[in-house]
Design goal:
- Keywords: Coiled coil.
- There is one protein chain.
- This protein has four helices and no strands.
- The chain is an all-alpha fold.
- The chain folds into two domains: 37 residues; 49 residues.
Length: 87
Amino acid sequence: MSAREHPAIAGGVAVATGLLLMRGTRRFLFRHTLGRLQSEEALYNKAERNVKKLNLSVDLMKKESKKLLERAAFAKTDMKRGHTEVM
């Protein structure tokens, strides 16, 4: 009923709510307002955690690629052996 009486206010509230629900807008507002209120120690700890996560994922990728290369080499020798048996 109040939205019918004040359509401009209702539209403004709807647009503001829509903008806040968008992921990019929320991230922008957080970084430029609340994110600046964090202490340097909190920011440093967050960056350190991100570096640890990245190092862990790089190590996992290296191990996985090593396993794949070993499997490819084994498959290649197996294929050569099968080829010689067929000959």
